[in-house]
Design brief:
The chain has 302 residues and is α/β, with parallel strands linked by helices. The protein is built from ten helices and 13 strands. The two termini are 32 Å apart.
């Protein structure tokens, strides 16, 4: 891996509160790297330190070879940033904001293209104050990309976007990655991280609980598969004897079989053998949310 971001033993406190506690990780060039965790986990503080917006108490950081604290100006010309909390003057128009940001950037992208890509073309003459929350979010993302950055930081990128807009945003972020830009995505949405990130670090209470590809984390920490069906037949002791079955629970007619490997095929075959053919037989694969719950023991706050 050719790291474009290197973080070693990063620590940041606010009084008695430890926001980031001895975090270390690397991000490879041209990947989408997710910092995944609940609100207050330390994700935003971490990326603010990476951008030179906050000074860490200790640790070593390099982004594109620059020290964000001592070489912040040189670094910011090469990165893009969509912060969790951002604002613009109420009366500035969408096109004016993009044109202004592009005018101070030597290698700016064509902001007209960004307007189209992020669904803002019809709002280009609208004032910032008239935009909805989702439209403001899309504008901030477009502004983060207008300088054609080598690394872009996106903090809670899809908060406020409807489901259709979220999926469009995911496709655009993949396209940005495919053009060679490294993306650091801060999110507490498990489905978002699982679908678009090449690697993720699960952050909880200021520390990294685990880091790997989404599937790697699932395989390592939550490999159990749940086979679910309903039946009126009450006598099912043979289910626990099926290979790869670890646990069977029942509530009324609903039966849940927990196992690993080819448990779905084995359970289905055993059901047919015993004359049971449930029309609602289905499987639930483990997700990143299952991983997070197992690693941290609490909900993500979505």
């Amino acid at each position: 891996m050719n790291p474009i971001i290197e973080v070693q033993n990063l620590r940041k406190t606010y009084g008695q509160t430890i926001a980031v506690d001895d975090i270390s990780f690397e991000v490879a060039e041209g990947e989408i790297f997710g910092l995944l965790g609940p609100n207050g986990a330390g994700k935003t503080t971490t990326v603010e330190c990476l951008q030179g917006l906050r000074k860490p108490d200790s640790g070593r950081i390099r982004v594109l070879g620059f020290d964000p604290h001592t070489q912040a100006q040189a670094l910011r010309r090469r990165i893009g940033s969509q912060l969790q909390e951002s604002a613009l003057p109420d009366r500035i128009k969408v096109w004016e904001a993009l044109d202004l940001f592009a005018s101070v950037t030597p290698n700016a992208l064509d902001w007209h293209v960004l307007l189209e890509q992020w669904g803002l073309a019809e709002k280009q003459k609208s004032s910032f104050s008239s935009l909805s929350g989702g439209q403001r979010q899309r504008l901030f993302i477009a502004l983060a990309l207008v300088n054609n950055p080598r690394v872009v930081f996106l903090d809670e990128m899809t908060t406020g976007l409807d489901p259709a807009a979220r999926r469009v945003a995911w496709d655009l972020i993949r396209a940005i990655r495919d053009r060679g830009t490294t993306v650091v995505l801060v999110t507490h949405f498990m489905d978002e991280a699982e679908k678009i990130c090449d690697r993720v670090a699960v952050v909880d209470r200021g520390s990294i609980a685990a880091a790997d590809t989404p599937q790697g984390l699932i395989t390592q920490h939550a490999s159990e598969v749940r086979v679910i069906f309903t039946t009126e037949q009450s006598d099912l002791p043979w289910l626990v004897e099926i290979p790869h079955v670890q646990r069977v629970t029942r509530k009324g007619p609903r039966v849940e079989v927990e196992g690993s490997g080819p448990v779905l095929a084995l359970v289905a075959a055993a059901l047919v053998e015993h004359g049971i053919t449930p029309a609602d037989l289905r499987v639930e694969q483990p997700t990143l949310e299952d991983v997070f719950l197992k690693l941290t023991g609490h909900n993500t706050g979505e």
